[in-house]
Amino acid sequence: MILTVTPNPSLDRTYEVPGLRRGAVLRAAADRVDPGGKGVNVSRAVAAAGHRTVAVLPLGGAEGALLERLLAAQGIEVAGVPVAGATRVNVAVAEPDGTLTKVNAAGPELTAEEAALLLSAVGERSAAADWVACCGSLPRGLAPEWYGRLAARAHATGARIALDTSGPALTAALRERPDVVKPNAEELAEAAGRPLATVGDVAAAAGELRARGARAVLASLGADGQLLADASGTYFGTAPVARVRSNVGAGDASLAGFLAAGGSGPRALAAALAHGAAAVRLPGSAMPSPADLDPSAVTVTTDVPRDRALTEPVP
């Protein structure tokens, strides 16, 4: 069972438009609303793959009630913590060439009591979990050390920790030795404190995160692929996509594939790549099912192309 924790979940509304013109009235060719938030997306992808998942998250207002109903309809067990503030609503505008413009709301500020209840909800369920995936930004009211406290509690019950966050929250949690962290290139550069221009730069930065406490690093590099560094070695993989429809939640789908495939080694990396590639071919933040995957398009190697320049280097 994979337990996900999303401290700042959302409803994600996506509009597909012919083109984005500032100041104009746009007519959407299609629109959809999906449960949102990194951990929520991981649960959705895990459930789509036929595995059991429990989503722990704060829920507030009519938006929170709708989020819970949407998740239940997808076969996801929800462990909701009632909060006074309303669950946020994010808006994305998708153009035909794959360009995505997003407006993310701040979300509610949690009280100290609500933060404690959220931590307790994770502790009560982590003993039954193979993995606890801690995902996304922390809402107002939660200190950067909150993920670290959560990791310590979950590790004490025997669960493994996957961490997908950034900034001070990532740095503070490294001392609790998360079993895998999943930064994108920008987040990895921030954690390393320097630019990343090549795959070799990514590999070096991943090694530094491991030295600082992460047992494994799964780095998402967008169209350039993904890199995995763990105790068994360093692996690099790609899964080319001819046309990107929406990249919302693609990293979350990758993490779900990685964890569902065991969470270590090249086989799990291949699953992560297949799930991420499938996600970007789908509308909005739709999560892929097994029928959407194309494992034949995935390539994984130990021969890491360290001199390969990143398509979008991080300054």
From TrEMBL:
* Annotated keywords: ATP-binding, Kinase, Nucleotide-binding, Transferase
Domain Carbohydrate kinase PfkB per the UniProt entry, residue ranges: 18-290
Q: From the UniProt record, list the coiled-coil ranges.
A: none
Q: Where is this region: Disordered?
A: 286-315
| Biased composition, class Basic and acidic residues, residue ranges | 304-315
Question: What CDD domains does its record include?
Answer: FruK_PfkB_like (cd01164)
User: Which InterPro entries did the record assign?
Assistant: 1-PFruKinase, PfkB_dom, Ribokinase-like, Tagatose/fructose_Pkinase
Query: Which SUPFAM superfamilies does its entry note?
Result: Ribokinase-like
Record-linked PANTHER family: 1-PHOSPHOFRUCTOKINASE, 1-PHOSPHOFRUCTOKINASE-RELATED
Q: Which family does it belong to?
A: Belongs to the carbohydrate kinase PfkB family.
Can you name this protein?
A: 1-phosphofructokinase
**Which organism is this protein's natural source?**
Streptomyces luteireticuli
